[in-house]
Specification:
By secondary structure, the protein is α/β, with parallel strands linked by helices. It folds into 2 domains: 180 residues, Periplasmic binding protein-like II (D-Maltodextrin-Binding Protein, domain 2), CATH 3.40.190.10; 152 residues, 3-Layer(aba) Sandwich (D-Maltodextrin-Binding Protein, domain 2), CATH 3.40.190. Helices cover 42% and strands 18% of the residues. It is built from 15 helices and 15 strands. A hairpin with a 5-residue loop joins strand 2 and strand 3. The radius of gyration is 20 Å and the shape is globular. The N terminus is likely disordered.
Length: 346
């Protein structure tokens, strides 16, 4: 039964149409509000580990929307590596909203002229209604005795982590490891690069997205350790409690998945108001608890405290501000011919 549950969990359909409960009607055609049916249609382009959360959230929001407006709403989901998803929107995927792994991916859509400037401040907490962090998932018994980032560079340890060129989660993974090396070596960049290069020398498989990396580790049985979103690791533990263990490193990073309205598409589709309601509702107590139940850290501190038995609330975390913000971090580490390319291609 668990095998079937996991296969359902890792289903990799790039576009999953979610009918928001029995409230959704026959659909609204090309988008926006269908005059004849009264059904609003909305497309949310998201990164790949959010499938389960948004499947549940869409049902919750549809009930709220029906009560508030008297209209049904049909929500279509698309999932994949965050960077790839951002490119798909730029290339014509008509998202009304994006809920991506990091702010930089949304900035790329802004720079393409599809999102108005100032989106980062449109919603609370840098437009990040929930957060996560980066942890390790190891096999039961932790045969390689993996406890911290240092253990990932040991000979004979095989690591699974996605590709920062296509995956937002992979970028958070890299920055968490880099910050650890920064603290360990006192800012000695040569030593930090050597540490990072040793870590990526141990990477056995580098998938395009975080969910693909989880599939490689959990379903395909490859690797000794998965560098993972905390929510992915906790979901694997829920599905396979006797097969894996979660290891929290001494230093991690506060990962802020961001959300935004894709203004050009929402204006064209007549969904601007529905899109704003959809993202605003993520901050309600009800939705925040749903995020916690799906292993995302609620941004509401009071709700987060309710999940003290689920999350390690004492883990030391750096933030993207320690890297000068996402624009600077991307320019320093992930743009072509910068630090990641240097250490990976050497």
């Amino acid at each position: 039964m668990k095998k079937e549950a996991l296969k359902k969990w890792i289903a990799m359909g790039m576009a999953v149409s979610v009918l928001a409960g029995s409230l959704a009607g026959c659909g609204g055609g090309d988008g926006g509000e269908a005059e004849d049916s009264g059904t609003v249609t909305l497309t949310n382009v998201s990164y790949d580990p959010t499938r389960e959360f948004y499947e549940a959230y869409n049902q919750l929001f549809a009930e709220h929307y029906q009560e508030e407006t008297g209209k049904s709403i049909e929500i279509t989901q698309s999932h994949g590596g965050s960077g790839s998803q951002a490119r798909s929107v730029i290339e014509g995927n008509e998202a009304d909203v994006v809920t991506l792994a990091l702010a930089h991916d949304i900035t790329l859509i802004e720079e393409a002229g599809l999102i108005e400037s100032g989106w980062l401040d449109e919603f609370e907490g840098n437009s990040a209604p929930y957060t996560s962090t980066i942890v390790f998932l190891v096999r039961k018994g932790n045969e390689k005795k993996i406890a911290d980032w240092d253990d990932l560079i040991k000979e004979g340890v095989s690591v699974i982590t996605p590709d920062p060129k296509s995956s937002g989660g992979a970028c958070w993974n890299f920055l968490a490891a880099w910050y650890y090396a920064d603290q360990k070596f006192g800012g000695d960049e040569a030593a930090m690069k050597e540490f990072a290069a040793s870590l990526y020398d141990n990477v056995l498989v580098m998938d395009s997205g975080a969910r693909g990396a989880t599939t490689t580790f959990v379903e395909n049985g490859q690797g000794d350790v998965l560098i993972a979103w905390e929510n992915e690791a906790l979901l694997a533990l829920k599905e396979y409690p006797d097969e894996f263990e979660l290891v929290t490193p001494s230093i991690s990073i506060k990962a802020e998945p961001s959300v935004a309205i894709v203004d050009e598409n929402a204006d064209k589709n007549g969904t601007q108001e529905a899109a704003k309601d959809y993202l605003s509702f993520l901050y309600t107590k009800e939705a925040q608890r749903l995020a916690g139940e799906n292993f995302y850290r609620p941004s509401d501190e009071a709700v987060l405290s309710e999940f003290g038995g689920v999350f390690d609330l004492d883990v030391e975390m750096c933030t993207i501000d320690d890297f000068g913000g996402w624009d600077q971090a991307y320019a320093d580490f992930f743009a072509d011919d910068t630090i990641f390319d240097e250490i990976y291609n050497q």
